[in-house]
Design brief:
mainly beta, ten-stranded parallel β-sheet, 6 helices, 10% helix
């Protein structure tokens, strides 16, 4: 993908470039069909690039709200944690009105904070007076802590299945579908929240080549046999034994590797999520932290069990492992979140500035400046959609889904000029991270390097992307390069310019997209 320095064809390349600029290339994998609607090429098994457009606040295509002020705080010059928390709790005690209680507004100035600020109720917003130097600054002092915590976290807020599960009837359910047939539909009705459960079996782990991970003579476990990877969805319609889901499935389900016990659908009680909460228009500043990721450190934001939540216009300086969205977070937008590091962490293990482990997560116009960092990482069993749109990450770092089979990521029109975008098998790295991502798409991106590998029975796509294309074996393996992902239209951006916006426009219409500020 790197340009060759061949002077005799400079004029020809210029002509090709001019033609491309006036008539963009298209990709068979996703393009406007003759009827103007998006058309998708499928794999022989029926898998396709999923519709990512439900990522974000309220399921995409909805403007972030402006919540009325209900309390105001001024900086004291001392530790302001107690005063800010008291204002948040005061607003949390107000009644809900159209889903909101109100905003706590921090006036311009510097707020010294020595403990975590907790948003504990739905409908509460913490708003500063700007993220610039003359706006609102939260200065983290004292014992290492998290600046903001939104919603509870931990296993106690996971979705809880109930009732008898129904086995999936299809021998193969392709990635990207919204329809799934079950053996017995009698327990289900439209509007039910369900878990689509992908069991981890010995046969599937072996098929993925993850049954023989060893490091330093010790066996590593990629995913424990007996657990399941769950996708929380809502049934929108039922026809016969076929359920239609609100959001496409990010992964495929292949019965010959998943039986027994087999893939299932089961009703569930969703986590007790907080809704309509946000942090906006402020800056978080930590002291420079040249630490390893195992040392205590200041962290900016921890997002737990929330739905329809956001961060907007937030600048973050010198935190480590800056933002973590837990597995129970859903329909979250991060808009214009800017992370900056003045020092790098120590050691071989690198922190993740945007650690995304929820579903329907949307990062828009976010930036990161730093070296030796994962700009975006995912954890085990994360099921999308997760979307990065128009983000820019500068320094020597990576967008790199991180461990144990995440699915359903779109990196759309993002730039990593000094680093890489990697959809890869991390092998024995960490504690046996193995295949980190499947069914991921980089669309019209630029980066110094790309590493896209193809997992067994899955795909990763690079479409319209510009940068050096790498080939590598599994880390510590030292053998032949792993199979390459699907590369289409290298060094030539494709139409539509943004896959996410094209999908969103098709689903909701151009008016909704414009109203959302996109």
């Amino acid at each position: 993908m790197a340009a060759k320095k061949l002077l005799p064809i400079v004029f020809l390349l210029g002509a090709v470039s001019f033609a491309a600029s006036t008539q963009p290339a298209t990709s068979a994998w996703a393009h406007a069909g003759a009827d103007g609607k998006l058309a998708y090429q499928t794999l022989p098994t029926g898998d396709r690039i999923m519709d990512f457009s439900s990522a974000g606040y309220m399921g995409g295509g909805v403007a972030l709200p402006d919540v009325p002020e209900k309390a105001r705080v001024r900086p004291s010059g001392l530790d302001d944690t107690t005063a800010i928390q008291a204002a948040l709790d005061e607003v949390a005690a107000l009644p809900l009105a159209n889903g909101f209680r109100g905003a706590v507004v921090l006036e311009s100035g510097e707020y010294r904070c020595e403990a975590t600020l907790n948003l504990r109720a739905s409908g509460v917003v913490l708003r500063g007076s700007g993220s610039g130097a003359d706006g609102t600054s939260i200065v983290m002092l004292g014992k290492k802590h998290v600046a903001f915590a939104l919603g509870a976290s931990g296993r106690e807020v996971a979705a809880k299945p109930f009732g008898s599960p129904s086995l999936v009837a299809d021998a193969y359910v392709p990635s990207g579908t919204r329809s799934i047939a079950v053996r017995d539909r009698s327990a289900f009705k439209a509007g039910d929240t369900v878990l689509v459960r992908h069991p981890v079996t010995e046969a599937w782990v072996k098929f993925m080549g993850m049954d023989a991970l060893f490091r330093d003579g010790k066996k590593e476990t990629w995913l424990a046999v007996g657990r399941s990877i769950d996708s929380e969805r809502t049934i929108t319609a039922i026809a016969g034994n076929t359920l239609t889901l609100d959001v496409p499935l990010a992964d495929d389900l292949e019965s010959k590797y998943l039986s027994s016990p087999g893939a299932t659908v089961v009703k569930c009680t969703p986590p007790a999520r907080l809704t309509q909460i946000g942090v906006e228009n402020l800056r978080v500043i930590a002291p420079p932290q040249p630490v390893t990721i195992n040392d205590p450190h200041h962290t900016a934001v921890r997002v737990g069990a929330v739905e329809d939540a956001w961060m907007r216009d937030v600048a973050i300086v010198d935190t480590v492992n800056s933002i973590t969205l837990g597995g129970s977070s859903r329909r979250v937008t991060l808009e214009r979140v800017a992370i900056t590091h003045t020092v790098a962490t120590k050691g071989a293990a690198k922190p993740a500035d945007f650690s995304v482990n929820g579903s329907q997560i949307f990062l828009h116009a976010c930036t990161d400046q730093g070296d030796s960092v994962f700009y975006l990482a995912t954890g085990a069993g994360v099921t999308g959609p997760i979307v990065l749109l128009d983000c820019e990450f500068r320094g020597g770092g990576w967008i790199q889904p991180h461990q144990r089979w995440a699915t359903g990521l779109l990196v759309d029109n993002c730039r990593v000029p000094g680093g890489g975008i990697d959809f890869m098998n991390r092998g024995q790295m960490g504690s046996g991270h193995g295949w980190a991502i499947g069914w991921a798409v980089a669309w019209n991106c630029t980066a110094k390097s790309f590493l896209a590998q193809r997992p067994p029975g899955s795909a990763n796509w690079l479409i319209g992307c510009s940068g050096e294309l790498e080939r590598k074996p599994m880390p510590f393996d030292g053998k032949q390069d792993l199979p390459a992902g699907i590369v289409d239209s290298p060094d030539a951006p494709v139409s539509p310019a943004s896959l996410y916006l094209a999908q969103l426009t098709e689903r909701l219409g151009a008016t909704a997209v414009k109203a959302a500020g996109l």
